[in-house]
Structure formats: C-alpha cells, structure tokens
Amino acid sequence: MKQKVVVFSQLDQDILQRLQQQYHVVMINPKLGDINAQLLEQVKDADAMIGAGRLLNASNLATAQQLKIISSVSVGYDNYDMAYLNQKKIWLSNTPHVLTETTADLAFSLMLSAARKVPVLDQWTKQGNWQRTVGMMQFGQDIFSKNLGIIGLGNIGAAIARRGFYGFNMNILYHNRREKLELAQPLNARYCALDELLQQSDFVVLAVDLNAESKALMGQHEFDQMQSHAVFVNIARGSVVDEQALIATLKAGKIFAAGLDVYAKEPLQESELFALENVVTLPHVGSATAETRKKMAELAYRNLVDALEGRTPAYVLNPSFS
Ligand code: NAP
Questions:
Q1: Which of 17, 73, 216, 319 could disulfide-pair with 300, CB 3.0 to 4.6 Å?
Q2: What global pTM score does this model have?
Q3: Distance, CA 147 to ligand 1 centroid (Å)?
Q4: Containing domain of residue 133, as a range?
Q5: Is residue 316 a part of any domain in this protein?
Q6: For ligand 1, what atom is nearest to the CA of residue 261?
Q7: Tens digits of per-residue pLDDT, 161-181?
Q8: Among residues 246, 260, 262, 256, which one has the least CA distance to residue 278?
Q9: 213 belongs to a structural domain
Q10: Do 198 and 221 contact (CB within 8 A), yes or no?
Q11: How far apart are CA 175 and CA 115, in angstroms?
C-alpha cells in the first residue's frame, strides 16, 4: 500500500505530480470548510505532510498515529509547535539556504524603495503631479556609504550585509545574541548592543528568526532609539515587532520610513499602515520568485522522501526529538 502524504498548502505543480506518482496524496482545501477539521481527519493515517504558512500543533495534529515528518516549504518554522512534535516523535524539516539571496534582494528592494520613496513617487507621477521640478516633499535619503544595522546576522542577514558592504560601500553594524565572527570579519561588521545599533544606524534591517527571545524585540523603546532620518525594514516575522509601536513611530514621523514584508497577522487586509505614506507594504514575498520557490519545493520534497525511505533528511530540525 502506498504511503499517505497530506499537502496542506499550495505546492509547485511538478513536485505535486511527483508526489502523486509515488504516494497516496490528499490535499487540504480551504474551499471544503474548516481546515483544522480536515487536518484532524486526514492526518489520522498520514505518513508525511508538506506545505507552508499554516499553524500546526496539538489542535490539528492530535489524531496523527504514524506521521513521520512535516516537511515545511520555508526556512522559518515558528508556525510549528516543536515541543509537541518532539513529544509525538514527528520530524520537522525546512528549506534553508536556497532562499537566502532572493530574500536578501527583497530586503534591499525595501531599503531602496522606502529610502527613495519609490512607490509614493510612482503614484505621484502617474497621477499627473509632475508639473515642475521636484522639491523637498519628493526627496529621499542617501544609501551609499551609510550605516547599515543588521539585527540577526544569520544566513539572510549576512547576505543583506554583503549587498550593503560590496555594492553600496556601507558600514555594517550587527546585533545577535552571540557574536558571529566568521560572518562578520569579511564584512568588517561591528558587533553592537541593540540600543547602540539602533542609535547609530541609518538603515535597520530585522533578519532574526522568531523565537521566545526575539518576540516583540522591536518595541517603543527600541523605535525611540532610532534616528529621525533612519529607515526600518522587516523581512523576518511580524511578531518580532510591536506593530502598534511601529505605527505610532511612523505616524509621529520619528523615523523616515519603514519597509515591511511581514506582519503580526497575515494576510494583512486592514491596517493603519495602509494610510501611511512613509511605509512600503509587501505581502510576505521574501522568497517569492519562480526559481526560488521551485528550489524550495524541490528541497522540501527531498526532505520528505528521505524520511519516508528511512533516511534522516538533510534539513531536519529535530533529528533526535530533544
Ligand atoms: P538564520 O541563519 O538562523 O539567522 C537568524 C539569525 O537571527 C541568527 O544568526 C540568530 O543568531 C539571530 N537571532 C535569533 N534570535 C535573536 C535575538 N533574539 N536577537 C538577535 N539575534 C537573534 O536564519 P535565516 O535563514 O537567515 O532566516 C532568518 C529568518 O528570516 C527566518 O527564520 C524567517 O523567519 C525569515 N524569513 C523571511 C522570509 C520572507 O519571506 N520575508 C524569507 C525567508 C526567511 P543568534 O542565535 O546568535 O542570536
């Protein structure tokens, strides 16, 4: 009998076809009603799950009897209750590295767009406002040679820092829980306490993973440390930021602008952010290029197949469930 795979979000068509050739595949379909009820029903006899963007925990996995792996098509894994997966001896795998450069590109797009008011000026031009030469209202901030502060110098943080260092001659500051000498030295990056980084950076980019210590890392105190011309960018996770504090900061014009890809609640359909000109809002598209999404799906597929064929996947996060 074929092993059963539950697909819990949209998936690359080629990968889906390959899965369907090898396994008994069941898709969770939002059009069929309550997702948790579908999951509880389908995971009972499932051997593996694959997908992204869904909270998976005791409330929708409790019926699983023989689930070996949840293969996430993402690098971030804050959607999954790791303690519960460990207790149930279910592997969780992710897709690091293949999305690093793409996500760093997006972070830089947000830095440039917010600093140079690209979306606002695009609208302004299309609306026929360009009747004479531009003035102060259309001016932005320089990027070249400025201070770039990275909070979370990991894979993506370092890729953003490389763009700043090599491409824009920027001075790199970074804050992590521990120094990252191997990543920092080639970029001449200086390790700082968080407040110092915020006070000295012209651009602050958040690239941490969401964990117990990074939750609400950027609150009102932190935004108050930033310079009035500074630009804040978040490509990490919405919950790393106190969104109300950010909105208050932007409304009061205490920083120049923000560029956001992620939010406390997604999808973001109503928000005070939409009324603000000094924020660029993107719909969580850090890794969203056709090439990269394919690579992520391929890697997630390999993780899943390895687990079902008795091998430890390359990117399993809890290999020994501890
Ligand atoms: P990574 O290599 O694990 O880097 C994360 C870094 O954050 C680590 O260097 C970690 O270092 C640091 N960190 C964690 N908690 C911290 C804290 N409280 N204070 C300061 N630094 C902290 O992961 P990555 O591949 O670069 O990905 C980072 C995150 O980006 C992912 O987890 C995901 O949430 C997000 N992401 C978003 C998108 C998007 O579409 N917008 C795409 C890809 C990834 P220490 O442990 O030493 O502190």
A1: 73
A2: 0.97
A3: 20
A4: 100-281
A5: no
A6: 41
A7: 999 999 999 999 999 999 999
A8: 256
A9: yes
A10: no
A11: 22
